[in-house]
Amino acid sequence: MASSSSKTGLLVRQFNALPRPTPTATMKNHYIFTVMPLPLGMKGDMRHSEGRARILTLPSVEEQAKVIVPLLLEAFVTAFDYELPVATAPGSWSTTDDKLAEAVSRRLGALGVRRELQDVGTMTSEADLALVEKGFASWSRSFEMFAPMMPDQNVQNADRACATCGFSPSVDSELKRCARCKARYYCSVNCQKGDWPTHKQSCRAP
């Protein structure tokens, strides 16, 4: 479970407190997430609208899930679905890769996300996958229009995420790095303390 003082720990508490509308015939309350490269040749992967974090280049689905989960929680906590009057939790969610779905499910459970949302489904039908591609294409066109107006101050943080809880930097949040090796980053003092028993074995001054 994430430290209560970590950025991810705070997101978990906020997410777990969100109301969860019951699905209806007109509102299924089902969300699909996936990771795709940004358009315009920009480095990194789509991260809602909060900043950038490289995900596809991470070495395993477990490492990918560690970064993806805080982004998912943040998206719902900040009410990214502007058609809804208040921030709400999903009724269910799925992704396009079964291994990633399993890894994200495990990560959600490890962080203490509400039990009914720890299970991530997998999309398999060609129609569903085509719908995702269509949605991303539409988003890409919109991004091309608004990208020049988006803050770009955190491009240098594209490779960084908290070594303990996986939180990645956004426009209004920065990570602190290890004062000795300058190579490991944390979102809070508690996350740094939690990682120290392992990190001290390899921490060396540059």
Automatic annotation (TrEMBL):
GO molecular function: zinc ion binding
Keyword DNA-binding: no
Keyword Transferase set for record: no
Keywords: Metal-binding, Zinc, Zinc-finger
Residue span, MYND-type domain: 162-203
Name this protein carries in UniProt: MYND-type domain-containing protein
Lineage, opening ranks: Eukaryota, Fungi, Dikarya, Ascomycota, Pezizomycotina
